[in-house]
Amino acid sequence: MAGDRALEIIRSLDGVVDAFYLDRDILERVKIEESAVKAAGEVSVINEGVNQALERDKVICIIKDPRFRPPPEPTVVLKSTDGQVMGIEVFPETSEKYLEMGDAIFVSDGFVMFPSVMPSNGQGENFVMPPIPFPELSEAEGFRDVISCSPSPTSDDMIRKWHELKPNGKYASILVAYNVPKEK
Q1: In degrees rounded to 5, what are phi and psi of residue 159?
Q2: How many angstroms separate the CA atoms of 176 and 18, rounded?
Q3: Model pTM?
């Protein structure tokens, strides 16, 4: 079964402490929680990754430690409500690119803002958490529409309690979701 293979692949990765499937009950609770998340200054957070994961056939939660590989793409983007990128997560290997831009301001080691980008017509902004590729589960192995994402801290806590895990500040969670090929 593809599902068993998914857990086998994921559990073999460096930095994976635990991995388990989430059932529809906890996923519904996560959906409700994610819809209420706000960032500092009451900026809305739209977790597109979680929203798309909830549409997949299977969702696995990975509990990871710092040895787990970094994401292949930025996991947080600040966008104006008209879709312009106003800020983006950066990684040590990509920060040089933004240092050379001239119109980027580092607000932390891991996030850069573009002050020249302003929302049009007085629109606002949202933090968007996009779906991220998860190349370890390949189409060749029978996994379709694979994505990964980070749940909000409150959803992470909810999932840990549901799975009866003790709080541990050294670990973080990632959701990996995929579709199962339809039987012919």
Answers
A1: -65, -45
A2: 13
A3: 0.87
